[in-house]
Write a structure and sequence with these properties.
2 domains; mainly alpha; 4 helices
């Protein structure tokens, strides 16, 4: 299934890049199309982030030195990026170890 999706993504990128130099500007909505196709997984992903954020804010209330959103992002970056790349783009998690 991942191979079919990857082929569809690459085909779409190829069609949009014909006759133009390839850039990462989102003139098309390839990234959003993938997210829309996997809406259930994306919703669970957002719920997971929301749950982690609420837990972070709750712990933050008892801290003497308050942490910010950037602290939260730094703490969960590896986990969020790995989940996103694995579930939406089909990358192997073993090759994503940072």
């Amino acid at each position: 299934m991942v191979n079919k999706e990857l082929r569809a993504i690459l085909k779409s990128i190829g069609e949009h890049a014909k006759g133009r130099s390839l850039t990462l500007k989102l003139n098309s909505h390839i990234f959003f199309d993938v997210l829309e196709a996997k809406k259930n997984i994306f919703d669970k992903f957002k719920e997971s982030i929301n749950r982690d954020w609420k837990e972070f804010k709750l712990k933050n209330q008892t801290r003497v030195i308050k942490k910010t959103y950037s602290s939260f992002f730094f703490q969960y970056f590896d986990e969020l990026l790995t989940f996103y790349l694995q579930n939406f783009w089909g990358y192997d998690t073993n090759s994503l170890k940072l």
